[in-house]
Amino acid sequence: MRLLGIALFIACGLAAVNAGELCSFADSATVIKQWQDVSSPGVAAKVKLSCGHAIFAKLFEMAPAAKGLFTRVNVADVNSPEFNGHVMRVMGGLDVLINYLGDTPTLEKMLDHLAKQHAVRDGVTTAGFGVMANVLMASMPQVVEGFNPDAWRNCLIPILNGMSVGLP
Question: pLDDT tens digit string along 43-101?
């Protein structure tokens, strides 16, 4: 199953990122199509959960201290309903953000909202989003057939930058 190992939520920190500036129409169309091949409604929630778990496992492997940021969602038991719920929220959030790549004003509002949510979380940093970018960029080729690293980098990095605005 090529979905195992898929990448998730979302890295780095430019202050006022406009996804349209770095993610061209062609890049966004490529990313949206490739993501839909992975995250279509026909993909079972169990598969999406497995993919999300693989992403977080890679994140915790690359940055073991990051585990401490997820205590409120019971990261001590990665199979708990709380952590599973968090994984599915992250996967769902990534899905929505990717599907709004073509609607810059809406995407910017969503990124602003997510940046504010992350800003109140102690320990969440721009560098942490950088690690997540590396996790996602390393995972997507295993998941997406014909993975286009330039298109994904051009679209994913602005998403993660937008989410990390205002973070230390």
Answer: 778 778 888 898 899 899 988 999 999 999 999 999 999 999 999 999 888 889 999 99
Are 119 and 142 spatial neighbours (Cβ–Cβ below 8 Å)?
Answer: no
Q: Which tokens belong to 116?
A: 């504010």
The residue whose two tokens read 């990261």 is 75
CA distance 83 to 25: 35
CA 38 – CA 32 distance, rounded (Å): 10
Encoding tokens for residue 28? 């966004």
- pLDDT tens, residue by residue, 118-137: 878 888 888 989 999 999 88
Contact in structure between 144 and 137 (CB atoms under 8 Å):
no
- Residue 118 labeled ligand binder: yes
Q: What is the CATH number of the domain that holds 109?
A: 1.10.490.10
* Residue 161 predicted with pLDDT over 60: yes
Q: Which domain holds residue 37?
A: 22-163
40 three-class SS: coil
Residues in the chain: 168
**Helix or strand run (H / E) with residue 50:** helix 45-62
